[in-house]
Design a protein that fits this description.
Radius of gyration: 33 Å
Strand content: under 5%
Oligomer: single chain
Helix content: 55-70%
Shape: elongated
Length: 218
């Protein structure tokens, strides 16, 4: 029976161990591998020589084959990514603000990544909403969000992205309009209209000044 997909060796420089095991799990699902012994065998076969050697060291004097698939995954996760302090992660979360040029979606992705280890539990959606409003770094979006009496995270996300998209679209329209012949003509007319003109008062001053010079010459 042909198998679906392919799992390459684990490379810590390319991805986190948790991401690797997530892909391995999807491989199991696609190929209907439910037996835990077979799952362990597949993992040990595809993880690569370096990873297998590390596993041997971590379980010594036992062998990797003496552990269950779940035990091996948890052991590697603890080695590569020990669970961070929730207090430190919450400090990072509550200090995070949107960077210049960063989209709303990217900012929210950063928030979700940090919140993963904050242990917020049932209050996660409220915390994400509050941090989105406080850290958005855009007065127009922030005022719009604060004007809502009943605001949850989903609505805050939709409103923020809507304003972001509308602003970008308006800017694109102005750029396209300026690039058209009509737009260039309007720009030329605008420049001509603001060009300083010599007033009658200036002409009179010039005439007086000229007369004074003539009198002095006499």
């Amino acid at each position: 029976m042909a198998s679906f997909g392919k799992i390459e060796e684990f490379n810590v420089a390319d991805e986190e161990w948790s991401q690797y095991t997530e892909r391995v799990t999807q491989y199991f699902i696609a190929n209907e591998i439910t037996d835990t012994t077979k799952r362990r065998a597949v993992l040990l076969s595809v993880c690569g020589a370096k990873t297998y050697s590390l596993m041997r060291s971590l379980v010594s004097p036992d062998k990797p084959a003496d552990k269950t698939y779940t035990e091996l995954c948890e052991l590697m996760q603890a080695y590569y990514h020990p669970k961070p302090s929730p207090i430190v992660q919450r400090f990072k979360f509550n200090s995070l603000v949107r960077k210049p040029g960063q989209s709303v979606a990217e900012f929210v992705a950063d928030l979700r990544h940090i919140a993963e280890h904050c242990d917020y539990g049932a209050t996660l959606q409220e915390m994400l909403r509050d941090r989105l409003v406080c850290g958005i770094q855009d007065d127009r979006i922030q005022r719009r969000l604060l004007s809502e009496s009943a605001l949850d995270f989903k609505k805050a996300m939709e409103l923020a992205q809507g304003i972001e998209i509308a602003t970008k679209n308006a800017t694109d329209i102005q750029v396209l309009k300026a690039a058209t012949p009509q737009g260039r003509e309007e720009k030329v007319h605008t420049v001509q209209e603001v060009k300083p003109k010599r007033t009658n008062q200036n002409k009179q001053r010039g005439s007086v000044s000229h007369g004074n010079h003539s009198g002095n010459n006499q």
